[in-house]
Amino acid sequence: MAGEQQHAHERVAPQAGHEQQTCPACGLHVDTVVRRRKSLGVFIPVWTRGPCRNPDCTDYVERGER
User: Fold this and answer.
1) What radius of gyration, in Å, describes the C-alpha atoms of the chain?
2) Alpha-carbon dihedral sign for residues 2, 5, 35, 12
3) Which of 17, 22, 29, 52 is the most exposed place for a label (fewest CB within 10 A)?
4) pTM score
5) Is residue 8, in this structure, part of any structural domain at all?
6) 65: in domain
């Protein structure tokens, strides 16, 4: 509905059928995250690269942060 606030929804996606994503900074594998976007009133899944969990990486994100 108009005026509703949209929240960021994301989940770790199963790896079957999707190529493994890598961190552009360090090259290690990261989780594939499924987010969603709304198009014509329907939520569409979008698979993207998740945050890097390598503490030595410049793109490192601790759990619970985005």
Assistant:
1) 14
2) negative
3) 17
4) 0.55
5) no
6) yes
Q: Are the C-beta atoms of residues 50 and 32 closer than 8 Å to each other? A: yes
C-alpha distances out from residue 15 to 2, 23, 29, 31, Å: 35, 16, 12, 8
In angstroms, the CA 39 to CA 21 distance is 25
Where in the sequence is the domain holding 38, given as residue range(s)?
Answer: 19-66
Domain count, the chain: 1
Residue 52 domain-assigned? yes
Q: Which of 66, 65, 58 is nearest to 28 (CA)?
A: 58
CA–CA dist 62, 27 (Å, integer): 18
Phi/psi of residue 11, each to 5°?
-140, 155
